[in-house]
Design a protein that fits this description.
CATH architecture of the largest domain: 3-Layer(aba) Sandwich
Number of strands: 7
Radius of gyration: 22 Å
Number of domains: 2
CATH superfamily of the largest domain: P-loop containing nucleotide triphosphate hydrolases
Largest sheet: 7 strands, parallel
CATH class of the largest domain: Alpha Beta
Bound molecules: guanosine-5'-triphosphate, magnesium ion
């Protein structure tokens, strides 16, 4: 079954793509088998990460950017994530609206991702979803994620280019200065540029960028003013993406390596945890949890004990 699903994914079959993403999202073993089968065919898509605060206009911008990309004939896959509220259905509603805009176009595949909420689950599921779309031959894959926290930073690191969307309004300067933001942005999109304060926000970002002395061949993140609702500035945004892609191929290679290592770490960590919990057994695991809860043992010592008991058990076997 996996073999035929893999073949259909590689053939770009939309239903197969949807099914494959569901498998990886649910951490179904068939999802891992599928990725094994298609991995050699991945690495071709250009992956764009878009993040920013709630309501910044990311989805509207992604929609416009998608239209811009489609005009060049390239196909697009979109993964929308809402790590802060996976159960509100907000992302799904946004998807439906956008589905309508691109409903008749097979060159656009939109999917929102829900996760089980465990550590690392989101970035792993997102990474796998991107791989599926990549294998399916999508030329460009866009990851849209809300927020500017660590989860989002991890997700955006999966991308070849990171676009940070900011909007004019209360606390712009603080928002722009927020830890992490300046480091992850390859391009800034100042959206809602039709609103008052856009110039001030641009100046604040500029001021921040000028704190860093950019070397001659170092990429200085450009700031693009956009009005996603009208599409103003979107062509410029796409042009900035193209410039980054053409000028920073080395960055792409380095990021892909980091991405590969991150995936390896996640999978190894997951397998180790699985191995240890399986060997230890549910009863001993729960007993340990009880002892931590009752302050009879600290979690560090408990972890050491569990890991060494498993390792010693294996040595002695
Ligand atoms: N005035 C103005 N409104 C905009 C612009 N871009 C988006 N909006 C509006 O802002 C609201 C939020 O847009 P979304 O695209 O859903 O924003 P988002 O960042 O995807 O929101 P979440 O995914 O919920 O975080 C919508 O009502 C848009 O119509 C813009 O450039 N100017
Ligand atoms: Mg959105």
């Amino acid at each position: 079954m996996t073999a035929s699903l893999a073949a259909r994914v590689l053939g770009g079959d939309l239903r197969a793509i949807a099914r494959a993403i569901t498998l990886v999202e649910n951490e179904h073993p068939a999802g891992a088998d599928l990725l094994r089968a298609v991995f050699a065919h991945t690495g071709r898509a250009y992956v764009i990460g878009i993040t920013g605060p709630p309501g910044a206009g990311k989805s509207t911008l992604v929609d416009r950017l998608t239209a811009e990309i489609r005009r060049t004939g390239l196909t697009v896959g979109i993964v929308a994530i809402d790590p802060t509220s996976p159960f509100t259905g907000g992302a799904v509603l946004g998807d439906r609206l956008r589905m309508q805009a691109h409903a008749a176009d097979d060159g656009v595949f939109i999917r929102s991702m829900a996760t089980r909420g465990h550590l690392g689950g989101l970035s792993r599921a997102t990474g796998d979803g991107v791989l599926v779309l990549d294998a399916a031959g999508r030329d460009v894959v866009i990851i849209e994620t809300v927020g500017v926290g660590q989860d989002e930073v991890d997700i955006v690191r999966l991308a070849d280019i990171s676009i940070v969307t900011l909007v004019p309004g209360a606390g712009d300067d603080v928002q722009a200065l927020k830890a992490g933001i300046m480091e992850i942005a390859d391009v800034f999109a100042v959206n809602k540029a039709d609103r008052e304060g856009a110039d001030r926000l641009i100046s604040a970002i500029e001021a921040n960028l000028s704190l860093h002395a950019y070397g001659e061949d170092e990429w200085r993140p450009p700031i693009v003013a956009t009005v996603a609702t009208t599409g103003a500035g979107v062509a410029e945004l796409w042009a900035a993406i193209g410039q980054f892609r053409d000028r920073r191929p080395d960055t792409r290679v380095a990021r892909r390596r980091t991405r590969g290592e991150q995936r390896l770490r996640e999978i190894v960590a997951q397998q180790c945890l699985q191995l240890i919990t399986t060997r230890v057994g549910v009863e001993q695991w729960m007993r340990t949890v009880d002892r931590i809860a009752e302050r009879q043992i600290d979690p560090y010592t408990a972890a050491d004990d569990l890991v060494s008991s498993v390792l010693e058990g294996r040595d002695g076997a």
